[in-house]
Amino acid sequence: MASLLQGRLPVHQDLLLMQKGTLMRKVRSKSWKKLRYFRLQDDGMTVWHARQAGGRAKPSFSISDVDTVREGHESELLRNLAEEFPLEQGFTIVFHGRRSNLDLVANSVEEAQIWMQGLQLLVDFVTSMDQQERLDQWLSDWFQHGDKNQDGRMSFGEVQRLLHLMNVEMDQDHAFQLFQRADASQSGTLEGEEFVEFYKSLTQRPEVQELFEKFSSDGQKLTLLEFVDFLQEEQKEGERASDLALELIDCYEPSDSGKLRHVLSMDGFLSYLYSKDGDIFNPTCLPIYQDMTQPLNQYYISSSHNTYLVGDQLCGQSSVEGYIRALKRGCRCVEVDIWDGPSGEPIVYHGHTLTSRIPFKDVVAAIGQYAFQTSDYPVILSLENHCSWEQQEIIARHLTEILGNQLLSTTLDGQLPTQLPSPEELRRKILVKGKKLKTLEEDLEEEEEEPESELEEAELQLEAQMESEPQELSPRSKDKKKKSKPILCPSLSALVVYLKAVTFYSFTHSREHYRFYETSSFSEAKAKSLIKEAGNEFVLHNTWQLSRVYPSGLRTDSSNYNPQEFWNAGCQMVALNMQTAGLEMDLCDGLFRQNAGSGYVLKPDFLRDAQSSFHPERPISPFKAQTLLIQVISGQQLPKVDKTKEESIVDPLVRVEIFGIRQDTTRQETSYVENNGFNPYWGQTLCFRVLVPELALLRFVVKDYDWKSRNDFIGQYTLPWNCMQQGYRHIHLLSKDGISLHPASIFVHICTREGLEGVES
After folding, report:
1. 51 φ, ψ (degrees, to nearest 5)
2. What average pLDDT does range 159-170 have in this prediction?
3. Is the pLDDT of residue 148 over 80?
4. Is 493 helix (H, G, I), strand (E, B) or coil?
5. Using CA atoms, how far apart are residues 724 and 235, in angstroms rounded to an integer?
6. Burial call 555-565: b when 16+ CB within 10 Å, e when fewer
7. 218 vs 5, higher pLDDT
8. What percent of the chain is predicted at pLDDT more than 90?
9. Burial grade of 579 (CB within 10 A; 0-12, 13-18, 19 or more)
């Protein structure tokens, strides 16, 4: 079967040449470089590879998996092999999520250009696909899987196998009836549109039909008034329902006559429910919708720990790719551990471990290139400086020369500020967080005075450093003579403006001795104990100063803590190992999904009030307590957990988890549906009470029930309470890596009520 997108795919000479196939070198490391034959399939949407032309081919990647294509000189690996392969012949395929990049070297510059341009053309096409085109592509992919002998048509035997691949358990006689009904040509096989008809017969949505008929007087269409009733009564759209109904009909009704008559057919109704307007995530929260003119400390800031690592903390690989990936997912605070390197060039790695090393200047270049591709709001470089005076000067020079005007090296107006600037004022600026020799006041005064002699300057620096760091002894070294630390270089110190790193002793000490532009870092254990012992003081501290929380050094596997408890106390920079997928990163992605994925989210007002009485462990009740009722109705096209087991079909259940203050953190789940991942029906209602909804995140997780062991993960979706839409909504599932599992979804009904009535304690 030709792709259902045939005729809509771009026509280009490069694509035709890619479909003929090309022998290229696949490069994994300096020692692993092997020839492979790559070919774009006839569907124009998948690339297969073999050891040689005509050899046994297997899928390499789908175009929908590709994020972008980079030139050879942008690849760390290919740059290291520049003496062996010309960089112009190399290119890198970058995938969505955490999948490793694919580095390839063609036999000529022309061949490399053909593949780079062709792939980017297809990636741009996939990115611009509408809902129907994405579904067509999904169907084409399945047809390719099911058409085992690749003759472009499917026998009933192939269809039966495909049903198992698609998670469908169906009586053989019923399946054969549907097959015969779809086989309009009576050829005993299904081709193109016949396969589409067969798929449609599988995806009837009786629960949506029932809902449609509840509001439709004739069961055939929803009139404008009927649709307005639905939007008001069920979707809680309020006064805007009338105008919205017209917009939605115009957008989702497939027939022109229906649009003219302002009516919505069943197909149009389903299209609406499945669209971004019918999504659980409120579309008004997708763009920048919050006030971005408040001081920096009033925001949660998406933050990364040991950003350079793409693996574990002991032997993992250090890579500029860690920074690129973090910045592209909206991270606004990245960490850079800098040590003395060979040939006078500082290096970045996890000190005293076997992690690999990368040049500091490469890290700065990557940050400069990718800092503002996803978000215009400021990026914070959290510097962990372990370098000698000489190499600190190199650090300062690289920052200044490579970042240029992007680097903030003085206050915005040259005057002494009274509070931190806002994200809006700092648009497209990169800020350095680190140790500083003097106060900001002294720095600004000095700019107006004559400089000291070099000797006097060095003496003053030594004094300042001793004054600012009398406490640097670790518990184990208190009885030992402290090793002398390198004096902080003035040129590097001067680049720290609004984010001077200081050691935390107590909240009282901070109030009495520190300034608003000074910031402290807390280990997860320290931050946890402070929340328990002095939760309200921590909240108040975070109303005027920035705090950074980082994972325990014992997390050598790059695992993460739950960030929610630190957000509850108003901590702004809660740093996570972004290379590690799982619940904790789902929560981070969920919180920062709003506000255009800008990496900045305004904290609730009670965490910004300098007189706040809020204590995250003991919130004063009642806050703005709410009851949440979630009816989990049905699921659609859930993926297989193990695609290698053709005969196994998932037994899905849905777990709803709430994360917020400790009293609100809970979970409930439905029963499981046996042997049906294609269109399972639950129809079960879960009820929650939430004391502080402003801090709550909801996580919907679909699992494959297994009575012998832990249930397997199928997909999830996480969002903030304040971005949740009420009514009948689809939840479009994401993989462990946060990648869309389109068209996998669950269909729910959401209802919130003020207060805690009717909910058991």
Report:
1. -70, -25
2. 81
3. no
4. helix
5. 11
6. beebbbbebbb
7. 218
8. 67
9. buried
- The more confidently predicted of residues 612 and 142 is 612
End-to-end Cα separation, the chain, in angstroms = 57
Q: Do 305 and 335 form a contact (C-beta atoms < 8 A)?
A: yes
How many of the other CB atoms lie within 10 Å of CB of 459?
A: 12
| Strand (E) or helix (H) holding 210 | helix 206-215
| Greatest CA separation for the chain | 96
Q: Give the DSSP per-residue string, 1-43.
A: ---TTTTTSPP-HHHHHHHH-EEEEEESSSS-EEEEEEEE-TT
Inter-residue contact 262 to 238 (CB < 8 Å): no
| Whether the bond into 490 is cis, omega within 30 of 0 | no
3-state secondary structure of 686: strand
User: Tell me, what amino acid is at 419?
Assistant: Q
Give CA–CA dist 292/274, Å, rounded. 32
Q: How far is CA 315 from CA 287, 349, 556, 580, in A?
A: 40, 10, 9, 15
3-state helix, strand, coil in the chain (%, to 5): 35, 25, 40
Assign 157 a pLDDT band (cuts: 50, 70, 90): confident
Partnered with residue 433 across adjacent β-strands are 382, 499
Q: What is the rounded distance in angstroms from the CA atom of residue 184 to the CA atom of residue 201?
A: 14
For residue 727, list its beta bridge partners.
750
At residue 111, φ and ψ (nearest 5 deg) are -65, -40
CA dihedral 678, 594, 667, 580 (to 10 degrees): 80
Task: Tell me the C-alpha distance between 415 and 493, whole Å.
Answer: 18
Cα 367 from Cα 325, distance rounded (Å): 10
- 709: number of Cβ within 10 Å: 6
Inform me whether the pLDDT recorded for 456 exceeds 70.
Answer: no
472-480 contacts at long range (C-beta below 8 A, 24 or more positions apart): 472/503
> For the segment 331-378, what is each residue's pLDDT rounded down to a tens digit?
999 999 999 999 999 999 988 887 789 999 999 999 999 999 999 999
DSSP letters of 404-422? GGGB--S-TTSSPPSSPPP
Spatial separation of the C-alpha atoms in residues 408 and 96, rounded to whole Å: 31
Q: Residue 335: what are its φ and ψ, rounded to 5°? A: -105, 140
Where is average pLDDT lowest: 140-154, 472-486, 608-622? 472-486
Enzyme catalytic residues: 305, 350
Structure tokens at 451: 């400089």
β strands within 41-101, DSSP E: 46-50, 58-62, 66-71, 90-95
pLDDT for the residue 356: 84
Structural tokens at position 363:
């890290």
What's at 549, amino acid-wise?
V
Read off the DSSP letter of residue 638. P
Place of tokens 């193990």: 642
Q: Which two tokens stand for residue 191?
A: 């081709």
